[in-house]
């Protein structure tokens, strides 16, 4: 049976579920339940972000005193990120100051929506923002590979459309054309080839989602701070930032 994803707009806990049993727990005998199955996670995410498509309102989207983040077309909001049912969520970011200039990469890894690990490094004295973003996404794929091998579900969130498109779309054509593109050089080619090979092996189990940077998504903000920490400390290796994690202090670090 083909895998399905279930969107619950109105239930005990609105969100996106990867199996019927979990969905049923939210809607069974729940007055006014609103839910629907979708064949792909991407369709479920899109549908969940449009509660106006169904009658009634969802408690997930009631107004609160906090400012609600918004996303450009095809990008996830903080609500959608939180609602995705993945055991592990990895946020990536790259920073460069100036561009080109001193570059570094950062990651924030969450387990069950709780911050678990922060990573930073891959400093380059004369890098670019695109290279730093690719490096961060590459490290996320390496971590995702390990998580998937342990039997856990994982989702990756990246604020670089360039990086995502390089390995999920453009590299397919570039490979068919002998790793050449019309119009000139493929920059960061060796890195993209490594990433593409790894992504091809993982793509049936892994979704890479785009989020907007600096819109208040905690994981993205922390990955950003880690990338700038890499720039400031000039750490070449990719290192685990040692806990405990003081979130207010971390978020107060210099942003990229």
UniProtKB/TrEMBL annotation:
It comes from Photobacterium carnosum. Its cofactor is Mg(2+). It catalyses: Endonucleolytic cleavage to 5'-phosphomonoester. Belongs to the RNase H family. The lineage of its organism: Bacteria, Pseudomonadati, Pseudomonadota, Gammaproteobacteria, Vibrionales. This is Ribonuclease H. Residues 84-232 form the RNase H type-1 domain. One of its GO terms (biological process) is DNA replication, removal of RNA primer. One of its GO terms (molecular function) is nucleic acid binding.
